[in-house]
Specification:
This protein is an alpha+beta fold. It is about 35% helix and about 20% strand. The longest helix has 10 residues, at about 10-20.
Length: about 100
């Protein structure tokens, strides 16, 4: 995981634990997919809600959302530029 390379394993674990809202995308790295899978534990069944294989094969337009103490959610990514209401709010770059 990139965060471990940057901060070290202990510090990275602390940072991840302190984030109550997490969004995960498909991973092409087995170790990262396994780490994500271990975070996605179904509270009722006490097992992983997504296997590392499922995480590695997530469609490009999908994501997994995790809010602490809640069931993980598989959702589609929202593309603001494809949404008529949201794209109308886009402003140009700020000139300095």
């Amino acid at each position: 995981m990139q965060i471990q390379e940057l901060y070290g394993k202990k510090e990275a674990s602390g940072i991840i634990a302190d984030c109550s809202f997490k969004i995960f995308f498909a991973s092409n790295d087995c170790q990262t997919a396994q780490a994500i899978s271990s975070l996605l534990i179904d509270a009722n069944e006490r097992k992983e809600s997504f296997s590392w294989q499922q995480i590695m094969t997530l469609p490009v337009d999908s994501q997994i959302i995790l809010l602490d103490k809640e069931q993980s959610i598989l959702s589609k990514k929202m593309k603001y530029y494809d949404d008529k209401d949201l794209s109308s709010r886009i402003i140009g770059p700020v000139k300095i």
